[in-house]
Design a protein that fits this description.
3-stranded antiparallel β-sheet; single chain; 5 strands; 6 helices
């Protein structure tokens, strides 16, 4: 949620992850949840082109509120994602945003993605000595080729829709008035 236009590098083919939105406050912080979270995510050319068209003539945060502040993760989940998952019959306890990461991991494994790059893109900390020794994440051309080869596993919209502000009403804290019949 903390992507700014400046985070798109390599002609839009790579996103640098180096900051996040604070958990309970709509502000950007310069630290990440884990050291592995600081990474670069390489995009398939079609996804890069889609996002290039989406961010055309934008500046600052890619996804923000009407006031220009960062979107809060939990607000989007509660007000936007969960209602849509329920509507489609796909809501499972604990899924939420993590379902996207699970889908991506499954897709990359099924496409026989190089495991070192798979882990790097998904911010998984190296576990074995072999993973610690590997420096494939430093090989930009290899990463870009691999992101193109493995594809992305979903259908892109034909046209860019300015979905910068998912519309969902704020939850009302007032309880509806109930008339008591005599």
């Amino acid at each position: 949620m903390a992507f700014e236009i400046r985070h798109f590098i390599n002609d839009g083919r790579t996103i640098k992850v180096e900051q996040q939105v604070a958990k309970d406050c709509p502000r950007i912080v310069k630290y990440l949840k884990t050291s592995a979270a600081k990474r670069e995510i390489d995009l398939h050319p079609d996804v890069a082109d889609f996002l290039r068209r989406y961010r055309a003539e934008k500046s600052g945060l890619l996804f923000h509120t009407a006031k220009g502040t960062p979107r809060l993760y939990n607000n989007l989940e509660d007000r936007w994602l969960t209602p849509r998952l329920l509507q489609m019959g796909l809501e499972e306890r604990g899924m939420g945003w993590h379902s996207f990461k699970r889908f991506r991991k499954t897709w990359l494994r099924g496409a026989r993605c190089l495991e070192d790059l798979n882990n790097f893109w998904l911010a998984h900390k190296p576990q074995t000595m072999s993973e610690l020794y590997s420096h494939l994440h430093e090989e930009l051309e290899l990463r870009l080729q691999e992101s193109e080869r493995v594809n992305f596993g979903f259908v892109l919209l034909k046209r860019v829709v300015d979905a910068n502000a998912p519309t969902a009403p704020k939850k009302s804290s007032t309880k509806p008035k109930v008339e008591i019949a005599a």
